[in-house]
Amino acid sequence: MMLLLGIVAVALLWWLAKAYTRTDTQALAKSLKAVAGVAALGAAVLLGIKGRFDMALLLGGFGAWALGWNALNLPGPWRKFQQKTGRFSRIRSAMIEMEIDHATGAVEGSILVGALAGRRLSSLDPQSLSRLYDECCAHDPQGIPLLEAYLDRRFSGWRENAQGDRDTRTRTHAHSGVMTKEEAYQILGLQPGASLDEVRKAHRTLMKKLHPDQGGTAYLAARVNEAREVLLGRHR
User: Fold this and answer.
1) Global pTM?
2) Which candidate, 227, 192, 233, 175, places its Cα nearest to that of 206?
3) Chain segment 35-65, per-residue pLDDT in tens
């Protein structure tokens, strides 16, 4: 049986090498890795049947790694369960990284720099949040709409009660630079290389939670829409 597996593996490698001239190197490397993963899992099963559990675990671990299986990206129904219950989007500015739970629409954030660096937004009292808002106004304009989105969820009516001459009306803030694919994946809560269906599904899920008509903000909705367009453009 081991000899048969070896022959199959050699045949597959020969076929992939022959197709090298008409396949880009990145796709070829991915295919080779997948073949190695499948072969390792097959060998692990045979070794397990023979009672060689130590080698079976070693080869099984390699096979799982080669196929990209991990605690955050499991195959089959486990992957679907993880996607439904454990997916988060991340939108980042210079001072704030916002996290959005796809399942509940809950919004949380971490402060990256400044006097309150290292703190979670949920740990701040209204006075500290007001201080952070002023810091964003002075040093991080892109952080303002992120903080506003959090305040909208935590303190309904805070805009009406805000003091001073702040413009806290709902508005779409401009953002600097072109969104990268890495940013787009983070905003939609996807792994690099996600399929078209995964992109569209993540977009629909987020828009149900973040659209202004659903209690979200125009800024967050615009960022989610932009992320969708960036990733769909990858397939065009």
Assistant:
1) 0.56
2) 227
3) 676 777 777 787 778 777 777 787 677 677 6
